[in-house]
Amino acid sequence: MTETTPRRRSRGRAAAHRHTWVVSTWIVALLLAGAVACGPSRDQAPAASEPAADQAPHRGGTLVAGTISDIDSVNETISSGSRAANDVIFQLFLHLLDESPDFTEGPPTWGPELAESYSWSDDHLTLTFNLRENAVWSDGVPVTAEDVRFTWQAHVDPAVAWGGAYLKDTIEDVEVVDPHTVRFHFSEVSPYQLNTTVEGVILPKHAWGKLPFDQWRENADFFVDNLVVDGPFTLDRWVPQQEVVLVRNERYHDPERPYLDRVVFRLIPEKSNQVTQLLSGGLHLVEQLPITDVERVRDSGTTRVESFWHRLYTYVAWNGQRPLFEDAAVRRALTMGINRQLIVDTIWGRYARVATSPIVQNAWVHNKEIKPWPYDPERSREILADAGWTDTDGDGILDRDGVPFAFDLITNQGNQERIDAVVMIQEQLARIGIEARPRIVEFNAMSAQLISRDFDAVFSGWGMPTTLEMRYAFHSSETGSGGWNVSGYKEPEVDHLIERMESLPSLAETEPILLRLQEILHRDQPMTFMWESQRINGMSRRVHDTHPNVLGTYWYLRDWWLAPEGE
Amino acid sequence: MAEPLAASATGPATAPRRLRTGGVVLVALAGLVALAAPWIAPYNPTHQLDPAAGRYRPPGSVLALVELTGERYLLVDHLERTPTGLVVSHRQETLEIPASEVLNLTPDGVADRRIFLLGTDGYGRDILSRMIYGARISLLVAVLSVGLALTAGLAIGSAAATGPRWLDSVLMRGVDALLAFPWLFLVLTLTALFRPSTTLVILVLGGTSWMGISRLVRAEILGLQTRQFILAARGLGLHPLRILWRHLLPNALTPILVQATLAVGNLILAESALSFLGLGVQPPTASWGNMVADGRDVLLTAWWVSTFPGLAIVAAVVAFNLLGDRLRDLLDPRTQEG
Amino acid sequence: MLGIGLRRLGASLLLVYLVLTLTFFLIHLAPGDPALVLLSNRLGPQSAEHLRQAYGLDRPLGVQYLTWLRAVVLHFDWGISIAHSRPVVGVLADTLAPTFLLALAAMAIQYGVGVPLGVAAARRRGRAADGAIRLTSLLLYSMPLFWMGLMAILLLSYALPLFPAGQMHSVDADDLGRLGRMLDLLHHLALPAVVLGLAMAGATVRFVRNQMIDVLGQDYIRTARAKGLTERRVIWVHALRNVLVPIVQLFGLSLPFLLNGSLITEVVFSWPGLGRTTYQAILARDYPVILAATAFTATCVVAGNLLADLLHAAVDPRVRVTPERRPERRRGG
């Protein structure tokens, strides 16, 4: 058992400074490495946290990773879209293009995957892909444009009810020109056209087209029984609620890769359990280490920690359609009544920073001019008093016209950092006379509440997409039931800006609009932005070439290799 | 965990006699602690003063609390008073603080030295204080739930025993159906479907524990129906409700009281299980159950967070079980230790 | 005797039906639209409507109930799990073996520890050993199960790395031989089974002790002793025989406790059984799974009670002779 206090006392100042220095060097190195990389090549990687890359990859071996939730299907269109499901699905199937995680520089660039090249028509309404000729499904059938068209049909079919169907709204038709040429026809120009076409893995028509779409939702087993893949791995075994085993796909179009023979995802819902297994050698990888375990994993001789800034930010969304949160001034007061830096320090230490905007700081278009609202409970009280909130009955809670400033603050189970933050927010707001009641709710149940706008305030997170789309969270058309503008935010200037942005032909041109949008959101605080956190993964030192990136831990799994034991 | 108010299948009292008296003392102590919590607890159970520095401190940690202007607090491991102010060691950093910023400065240091006898939790809150306040919640919930169950059980049991036969049949069938649910499944389903809160816990626990009582009441009353004094009362033409209220119930009460006391212990266990599973008392209110849950993820590095609240539960439940045994000795001649 | 058996069976079936109906309406009358749980992934209104229809959620509650009942009774079709997108029967079938294993092991420990200790306490009644045993049983009886589990993990898995802290298999269990896999399973089973078993043993010790005391005071025991039989024979053959029936009854009646306890144990030890799956289903509002799991467990409880009743009737002549008057039964568990 680690006895923490005596050790801290004996470390002293010098050690503390050394600590800071080491971590800062790593962060700087990471950022530098990230900045140096450019172009669509896959080999760019922040190398600072990895062992020397001069060793040749070793073939073979089984990688065992821990996961906290099971996959629910191998078919992306009927899956819930959880990270666990996508981690596996993206190893079995391929996208048209491979996105490079270079959005710190500028709009993301694309490399070849199923498609080798693409070209636009002059009016930018037609996009033609040339597919590679050597891609085959694991049963030998070639991957063709028919699969691409079939996939699009599945994506937009109402019976299949894919959660990402809305992304395909602007695609009018997908045309098979010849077996290796496929053409997308759009109804309008937007900066997201390319993303729209690439979103969603390509499905096997010859295997899955046998089942009519309206039976897809009830027959998850059919897709496992008739599974053919074109990705680096295929499914060897899926034991529900226990593990998923992937095995090397010999028919993958790149004969060199993957290097690993097998990948096992073991379902272990308790992170502490996973960490114990990692330290004892039972697991090679644990995603998102609990902060309290980082030191142990870093100091052990057999494991190491990879941490890097990600594209996730968390926020407290205030339901602007409820009288409590209608007023932007009140929302600003709430933000100033929450000591965000203290929350970050307590929960994350150096592994997170306060967020000021929905566009994270290491993105190419983050508005650096914006300074976060300070923690100022005095000022908070003043603003609230100006808005009519005073404690007339002496119970410690502000009230106005007989209504107390009290509400439920919900967050989902399973995420200890968010639960901790909610408990801290409750205590801080109590000091300025606001009663925030923490409610920990199961994830699906919370989503149901959000969709029906049946909530007061919610603490949640958002993995910002690299397209930096703003419509879904902030446009007034999304405030109705079913949209993701859960705050009910309606600001005409924001609407205009978003609409203008959506008619531009490329992401690069959206920069000035995105900068202005951030200013307005900062002013209006439809949500209080909380933190941006690093992804902190613990892994065995035998794992090499993981290329940590913001798209996903397992994005480059085909490049990973395991050093033989004893090395 | 047994359905709390099932009539005991365990027969006569089984704890050693001396201990049973101890039970009375323990329960009284628990009640006192719960009532006097604000005066006994060393620190506030919900204030988070410098959570970053104070979190997960082991039992016996001693820290000084420096109160600064602007509503800021620092929990420091060492401090030195200098002519200009303070030099403190805070979270592995050394800070110099001018005297003008410190609100609780004294000639020797600061006025607030904190001893965390049982350690701190993830927000730097004192475990001992939270346990003391937790006693309030646990006892309150258990007692109120039992009260609810008693009321419902008495009403329904009496109705079944003294009413028409069809009513008896219907009610007892209903009771059987409810008893056929594994109790925890029923409780979890109910609390998960509605928004969890302390009030809901009381309603659900009380609403699922009355069945055993009602059976007991019914059995007792049926047994009494044939006794001389009841037959006499009937013969006199007294109103049935009056007979029920003044003659039947008082005589049936004794075994019921014993069961109710034992039930308090069981309901303390039940509430703590619910809170542990996240469906009982909600944070930041301290309940022994949710305190144990808080420590689950840090069991390896901060074992005290889960351990001490659990000990409190054991102590409280033992106390009520002993008390129940003692009451049984005193009040129920049929079950005297031979 | 047969008459009683049939009547009891009929009553039991009626009970199970009542339980099912209660659960169905309970779940569907809770606030919140169950359809919304399915919409957790940003579906457009068209898809939402289609899903609603697919799950039959757009029809009136009474119709939904009858449809569901019909499917269950005629086809044993419990529907599709919302969270797992697989038939409920499949989801739950996977969980039965682990729970059964855990329950069996726990009961073995419960009786293996409870009966001998109860007998020992009865024999040494009033003496120090009796007091010590009763105190131990009181402590076990008063401990919260989830805390016991956590302390067991802390002491026997973290402090002394003797046992795994959860799950059913090791990560590399497949690479072991058959024997190795079995040993691995036992290794993982040890802590949860001991924790659950000891928790239940607390009540068992009390029960056995009291029954034993009653029996030991009977005439035939005195006769057996007078005849010169060894004490061991007296206790273990003659006395215990008469205690066995109540013990088996106790087993039937302690099924609810076992089910409740296994839920908590499975959650604490991440044991992939019925209890844990049900708990997750309850949190996720996976109604089909909740209904099926409740039905199953209620059936177990009712079956357990039925068994206890039948045994009671078989043993106690009063019950057979006077079937009209319901004897006062003391239920527990």
Description:
The complex is a heterotrimer of chains A (567), B (338) and C (333). With 567 residues, chain A is of the alpha+beta class. In chain A, 30% of the residues lie in helices and 21% in strands. Chain A has 16 helices and 21 strands. The two termini of chain A are 28 Å apart. The two termini of chain B are 29 Å apart. Chain B is mostly helical. Chain B has a 3-stranded antiparallel β-sheet. Chain B has a 3-stranded antiparallel β-sheet with strand order 3-4-5, with no helix packed on it. Chain C has 333 residues and is mainly alpha-helical. Chain C has 14 helices and no strands. Chain C has helices spanning 2-28, 34-38, 45-54, 61-75, 88-123, 128-142, 145-159, 178-216, 219-226, 231-253, 255-269, 274-284, 287-315, 317-321. Helix content of chain C is 76%, strand content 0%. The chains are: A alpha+beta (567), B mainly alpha (338), C mainly alpha (333). Chains B and C meet through helix 5, helix 6, helix 8, helix 10 and helix 12 of B and helix 1, helix 6, helix 7, helix 8 and helix 11 of C.
Q: Give a count of the beta strands of chain C, DSSP E runs of length 2 or more.
A: 0
What oligomeric state is this?
heterotrimer
Return the string of H and E elements of chain C.
Answer: HHHHHHHHHHHHHH
Averaged pLDDT of chain A: 86
Could you report the average pLDDT of chain C, rounded to the nearest whole number? 80
Low-confidence spans of chain A:
1-52
Number of helices of chain A: 16
Provide the helix percentage of chain C. over 70%
Radius of gyration of chain A: 25 Å
Strand content of chain A: 15-25%
Judged by helices, strands and strand pairing, the structural class of chain C is: mainly alpha
Question: How can the largest sheet of chain A be summarized?
Answer: 11 strands, mixed
End-to-end distance of chain C: 25 Å
* Count of helical stretches of chain C: 14
- Estimate the global geometry of chain A from the Cα principal axes: globular
Give the overall silhouette of chain C: globular
Low-pLDDT windows of residues of chain C: 39-43, 320-333
Give the radius of gyration of chain C. 24 Å
Query: Roughly how many Å apart are the termini of chain A?
Result: 28 Å
